[in-house]
Specification:
Elements: H1 3-10, E1 27-30, E2 33-40, H2 53-75, E3 81-92, H3 100-115, E4 122-128, E5 137-145
Helix pairs in contact: 2-3
Length: 146
């Protein structure tokens, strides 16, 4: 089954690939790797302060949808993705918040849902005292290209 068919089956509609917010490009292809710049959540706030883990996970899923939109824009089709190699997740959170992995799972779960075993990846899930524009989550990705 094609990835586009899988998205339809899952009821997932990807957003338009967001334009860069500053002086960088949304993605770079080097060899057989696609590096997608950090995609930020629409949700603003801080985990451990005014946001719950579930809200953070939903924000991370939104970042994942933007990552997929960028990958499709770069490759023309998500069927060219051979593997999700790595996600780097940043969570706007308090010094005492320790559930960053559960937040970034919102994106990780999406990748496995869409790509199956090819969606299983290496990952970082770290705390940040603030993120651009006050958003709750930012996630970057590396994809292997078939």
């Amino acid at each position: 089954m094609s990835i586009e068919s899988k998205l339809t089956e899952l009821g997932i509609t990807l957003p338009e690939a967001p334009a860069p917010a500053a002086n960088y490009v949304p993605w770079v292809i080097s060899g057989n790797l696609l590096f997608v710049s950090g995609q930020i959540s629409a949700l603003k706030g801080r985990l451990g302060d005014d946001l719950a883990v579930e809200q953070g996970a939903e924000a991370a899923r939104g970042c994942g949808l933007s990552l997929l939109a960028q990958a499709r824009a770069a490759l023309g089709s998500l069927d060219r993705v051979a593997r999700v190699v790595k996600l780097g997740g940043f969570v706007n959170s308090t010094a005492t918040f320790t559930d960053q992995p559960e937040v970034i799972n919102g994106c990780s779960n999406l990748m496995v849902e869409v790509f199956g075993d090819k969606g299983r990846h290496a990952r970082a899930a770290v705390s940040a005292p603030s993120l651009p524009r006050g958003v709750a989550v930012e996630i970057e990705a590396i994809f292997e290209i078939a």
